[in-house]
């Protein structure tokens, strides 16, 4: 019986040692998990702060984009106004050139008329002279 008691005692000690070893391993595992949870929380907090920073930056970029859109609209309007002014200037220049040509044509026509008029005046003077001569001849 003593052997049996000794065996039981050895088995009990072995069980206690195994239990203590298992308990120590479980404690180490739990401590590792706790460290892992703390590290995971730090990472999640950092990621959370990163997303908050990105959201704030996104808001700033959105506002700047809206400003750029407005500036683009203003620039487009200014460009359209400039093109309209240039178009009006070109149209005005075209009308000016047409008016100059018209004036030049009128001047040419007037010169032609004046030349014709002096020729006509000369012919009238010749006819008048001939008429005077005829009248003198008739009176003789």
Description:
The chain is mainly α and 140 residues long. Helices cover 99% and strands 0% of the residues. It is built from one helix and no strands. The protein has one helix spanning 2-139. It starts with a helix and ends with a helix. The mean pLDDT is 83.
Give the topology.
Blueprint: H1 2-139
First-to-last CA distance? 200 Å
Order of helices and strands: H
Query: Rough shape?
Result: rod-shaped
DSSP strand count:
0
Q: Structural class, from secondary structure content? A: mainly alpha
Note poorly predicted spans.
Answer: none
Assess the beta-strand content as a share of residues. Answer: under 5%
- The amount of helix comes to over 70%
Overall radius of gyration: 58 Å
The main β sheet shows up as: none
Total number of helical segments?
1
Tell me, rounded to a whole number, the average pLDDT. Answer: 83
Summarize the structure.
The chain is mostly helical. It has one helix spanning 2-139.
